[in-house]
Amino acid sequence: MIKPTGYSILVVDDEDIMRNGLCEPLTALGFDVRGAASAEEALKLLDEREAHIVITDLRLPGMTGMQLLSRVLEKKPATAMLVMTAYGSVETAVDAMKKGAFDYITKPFSFDEIQIMIEKMSEKLDLVIENEKLKTELKGKYRLSNIIGKSKKMQAMYELIEKVSSSAATVIIYGESGTGKELTASAIHYSGQRVNKPYIKLNCAALPESLLESELFGYEKGAFTGALARKAGKFESAEGGTIFLDEIGDIVPEIQVKLLRVLQEKEFMRVGGVTPVRVDVRIICATNANLVEKVKAGKFREDLYYRLNVIPIYIPSLRERKEDIPLLINHFIAKFNSENNKKFKKVSDEVLKLFFNYDWPGNIRQLENTMERIIVLNDDDLVTKDMITPDLMAEFNTVSAAGANPGGFIKTPGQASDFYQSRSFNAPAAVVDDGTAKNNTGSSQQAVSGVNALNIAPLAPLEEVERAHIARALKILDWNLSKTARSLKIDRKTLYLKIEKYKIEKEVY
Ligand SMILES: Nc1ncnc2c1ncn2[C@@H]1O[C@H](COP(=O)(O)OP(=O)(O)OP(=O)(O)O)[C@@H](O)[C@H]1O
Ligand SMILES: [Mg+2]
């Protein structure tokens, strides 16, 4: 015997014996069941109150069961509909399934059979509900309102995001590492018209060239050794939705050409394929490289650059919108309090000042990780200076000397938008440090801008900061690579590669 679920059932049959024969035992089992003797009556009952499951005979006086099926599914596509057919009219039943019926059952059937069907339909309804819940959660998670920041630069960005969300135009997101490029891309997809279609992400820098091509475009059976069956690529999987190509600046010319074709002709070839595949996919891409420089250096196709650069969005670095720091702190306090069951309320004035004076080369991600570490490792309601570990403190002191340092990057012609008037992205060549830089307090540097702003303290190279940060994280987490990778929000492999690259050794730290 099945247990009653919370789902309501409507039984439609003009034969009283049949209808009552189902309604009565199901009611006795505790189900919420109603009966209707015609399709017309069924529609009236459904108007009064919905039913999750509709079990209907196909042959009814007046409106047929098939017509009822179409009407019900039109109004409420998630309804689980079971059609009852007489022996020998299976074809009609198959038709009904094509129109969206869950299944059919041939008369005569036992009560056991119908119970199994109801169980299956309930499971399907559970899945539908679970899916809806997940989708709503996703939509919530990536809502524009989850991008924190009230500064003018951010407000201008929100306006732009809202405008581009409703279009299908290609978007390219520029910004330094950790500024929220991925978050922005998700917000664009989840607040746009393609929200119920796939959102597929791919980090172009994470894969070798050969793999990247088959990841993007898929392959045909036999395209290479090991290609045992045709496989769809990310573009095909994203059909109707959005593809997010991260680190677009890193793709090699061979793939750049293929991407250009997708952008121009909306079609591509699977690896080893001969017929083009057409797709309707919106492209959002991101880079922390200076594409203009890459074009100049011959590393990035100019035609592709223009195709991608339809709607550029420049995300400001954190040091350009320091006024958002308090908001972000509150956001991360709330987030990590709830994840770790802590009760922090705010940061002390002293800590706030330290945070303000620091340049945050790793941007929001670095601030987020800093807050997480403090909250995980301490129990209090106020974040105080002594919670900042000496190594982080040292970093605050050294990098802050170059503090508030917009002049540290040279101006890039062609990217002088409303945002980023005064700098390019962290293209290494653009970092100004000719060794003549003098130390100073940095407080007067706010106004410095342009190529000639050399009277600033040298910035710590990003790699050094990264190395120190990783080494510190490893030390705190006892060299547990999984935990460290998780807390740094990178994958284990990346962590491993960085440990190797920077030659970080256990005994040193
Ligand atoms: N404006 C913001 N408000 C709240 N959280 C943010 C904001 N911007 C970024 N974050 C958080 O900071 C972290 C880094 O963001 P994200 O991964 O989107 O950055 P990114 O620019 O793609 O970085 P990278 O260049 O390293 O890939 C994420 O955990 C993200 O949720
Ligand atoms: Mg990213």
Describe this structure in words.
This protein has 509 residues and is an alpha/beta fold. Among the domains are: 8-138, 3-Layer(aba) Sandwich (Rossmann fold); 150-314, P-loop containing nucleotide triphosphate hydrolases (Rossmann fold, 3-Layer(aba) Sandwich), CATH 3.40.50.300. The protein is built from 19 helices and 14 strands. Strands 2-1-3-4-5 form a 5-stranded parallel β-sheet, sandwiched between helices. It has a 5-stranded parallel β-sheet with strand order 7-8-11-6-12. A two-stranded antiparallel sheet has the order 9-10. The radius of gyration is 30 Å and the shape is globular. Residues 400-457 have low confidence and may be disordered. Magnesium ion (MG) is lined by residues 181-182, 246.
Key attributes of the depicted protein:
509 residues; alpha/beta; Rossmann fold; five-stranded parallel β-sheet; 19 helices; 14 strands; binds adenosine-5'-triphosphate; binds magnesium ion
